[in-house]
Amino acid sequence: MSGSYYVPPQSKWPALGSLAVGVMMVSLGMQLVHGIGGLVMTLGMAAVLTVMWLWFRDVVRESRQGLYDAQMDRSFRWGMGWFIFSEVMFFAAFFGALFYVRVFAVPWLDGEGAKGVAALLWPDFTASWPLMNPPSESISGPREVLSPWQLPLVNTIFLVTSSVTLTIAHEALKEGYRNTARNWLIGTILLGVCFLVVQGIEYYEAYHHYGITLQAGIYGSTFFLLTGFHGAHVTIGAITLSVMLMRVMKGHFDRDDHFGFEAAAWYWHFVDVVWIGLFIFVYVL
């Protein structure tokens, strides 16, 4: 449709998607705080995945019908760019909380700096990170912390390698080597699945052998806040790449028209960069 601008028809998916995410997150909060809401959370998650699937379906159909022109392509690129920027700020807030706790709050409780008067609350408290002994006796810290050079390092290798394999798949698609793109994309998805499996093992070890739980003081809560949300993003990225794999296998995309694949690659590389930050600031430092 050269010379025209395609306006998508009215869609119910944004409203339904927001409702599904809202139900999932509220029930997740109820599950974490009160221990109830697991069933509703599962239903909300299923609703989110269903909306994602149907929304992807509609966009793919419109693209395959040739309804999108250069202006629409620019709109998609700007939209994806702003979405990733919002995700950057999302994680920046959590990294900022970790920075504030480590650099300001914990030292203040030990009498350091302008807020040193806070040390009067717990005069026997000694600042350290990881915070193994929280100042209040009502809260128990973790017994040990995870070594960054074991499971976290394995997961770092998995994700860094997945960025390489995805780049190879992208370049192969741009050169028209569809089978090569398919094979390297399968490798990328498998590496993402391996990451999630290893993270599950790490969480089991943290809970049952190291005493790292959501109730293990500020260290436990920041650990699971950052790594948990990142794991959710890896899951979403793996689902998106799986959709791209199905499209590649069905003969979709060509050398000049494959922004769906490119957008998924942007998202995956962003998730990889966030993990490197997590590995450094949560596990190593």
UniProtKB/TrEMBL annotation:
Residues 1-285 form the Heme-copper oxidase subunit III family profile domain. The keyword Transmembrane applies. GO terms for cellular component: plasma membrane. One of its GO terms (molecular function) is cytochrome-c oxidase activity. InterPro entries: Cyt_c/ubiquinol_Oxase_su3, Cyt_c_oxase_su3_dom, Cyt_c_oxidase-like_su3, Cyt_c_oxidase_su3-like_sf, Cyt_c_oxidase_su3_a-hlx. Its main location: membrane. The keyword Repeat does not apply. SUPFAM superfamilies: Cytochrome c oxidase subunit III-like (SSF81452). It is a multi-pass membrane protein. It is found in: Cell membrane; Membrane. The chain crosses the membrane at residues 12-30, 36-56, 76-101, 149-169, 181-201, 221-245, 266-284. Pfam families: COX3 (PF00510). Keywords: Membrane, Translocase, Transmembrane, Transmembrane helix. Signal peptide: none annotated. GO terms for biological process: aerobic electron transport chain. Belongs to the cytochrome c oxidase subunit 3 family. PANTHER family: CYTOCHROME C OXIDASE SUBUNIT 3, CYTOCHROME C OXIDASE SUBUNIT III. This is cytochrome-c oxidase. It comes from Onishia taeanensis.
